[in-house]
Amino acid sequence: MKEEKSDVRPESLSGEESPGDRFEISRRGFLKGLGGTAVAAAVFPKAAVSQEGTLRGVSVGSVTLRVNGQTHVIPRVEARTTLLDVLRNRLDLTGAKPICERASCGGCTVLLDGKAVYSCSILAMDAEGREITTVEGLASNGRLHPVQEAFVEHDALQCGFCTPGFVVAAVAFLQENPNPTLEEVKQGVSGNLCRCGTYTRIFEAVLAAAEKMRKGA
Ligand code: FES
Ligand code: FES
C-alpha cells in the first residue's frame, strides 16, 4: 500500500521555513497561527481580574493591594503582572529587587500575611486581600526594625543589593523562631543568596537581631 505523505508545510503556519528542517514549526509561527488574542485568552482567563478591557489582546484590570498598612487601587494591570513589578513600577517601592526573577535568589522577598515570599513569582492579582509588607514598611515611629539595625551594626553587606531581601526573610524567620542557633539561622535564610559572599556577617546580624528582639531592645 502506498504511503500517503502529509502536505502540511511549515510555511502555512509560520510563513518562514527553517533551513534543514521543513517540519519544525517555529515558536513565532505557532503563535502567529493561533493568533495573539487566542493565546492571551488561553493563558490569562478573563474571569481572573476585574475587567477594564484588553491591552494588545491581554486582559487588564484594576488590582487592589494592601501594602505596608495602606490600600492602593492600581488601575490597568495586566493579568500576567507580578507583585514585584507592581511594587516597584507602580507603587515606587523599590526595596524588593529584581535579580533573578525566577524564584532563585530571594532579592525580591516581601511578607505576605507575615510569610516570606518571592514577589517575582506571585501575580499581583493573587496578592489581593492579603497583607503585604515590604522592607520599606519594617521601620516604625522613625526607628529601624531590630533586624535592620543589626545589619547596620554588623556591617552585613557589601554592594547591598541582596540586603532588603535578606532583612525581610530574617524578619519572617525570627517571627517563627525567636531564639535560633547559628545552624538554624543558616537554614532559615537559605532561600536568599548573596553574591558578595557576606554570609558570615549576615548570620551574625540575624543572631544579634534575635537577641535584641528577645530583650525588647
Ligand atoms: S528576583 Fe525573585 S527570587 Fe530572585
Ligand atoms: S551584599 Fe552584594 S549581593 Fe549581597
Would you spell out the secondary-structure blueprint of this structure?
Elements: H1 11-14, H2 27-34, H3 36-43, E1 50-55, E2 58-67, E3 70-78, H4 83-89, E4 109-112, E5 115-118, E6 131-133, H5 146-153, H6 163-176, H7 182-188, H8 199-215
Parallel strand pairs: 2-6
Antiparallel strand pairs: 1-2, 2-3, 4-5, 4-6
The chain binds FE2/S2 (inorganic) cluster (2 copies).
One FE2/S2 (inorganic) cluster is lined by residues 157-162, 194-196, 198.
**Helix proportion:** 25-40%
Strand fraction: 15-25%
Task: Find the CATH topology of the largest domain.
Answer: Ubiquitin-like (UB roll)
Please indicate the count of domains: 3
Radius of gyration: 23 Å
Distance between the termini: 88 Å
How many β-strand stretches? Answer: 6
User: Helical stretch count?
Assistant: 8
Can you list the ligands bound to this structure? Answer: FE2/S2 (inorganic) cluster
Label the CATH architecture of the largest domain: Roll
CATH superfamily assignment of the largest domain? Beta-grasp domain
> What is the structural class?
alpha+beta
Which CATH top level class of the largest domain fits?
Alpha Beta
Looking at the structure, what is the overall shape?
Answer: elongated
For the residues shown, what is the average pLDDT?
82
The main sheet comes to: 6 strands, mixed
What ranges have pLDDT less than 50 throughout 5 or more consecutive residues? 1-50
- List the helices and strands in order: HHHEEEHEEEHHHH
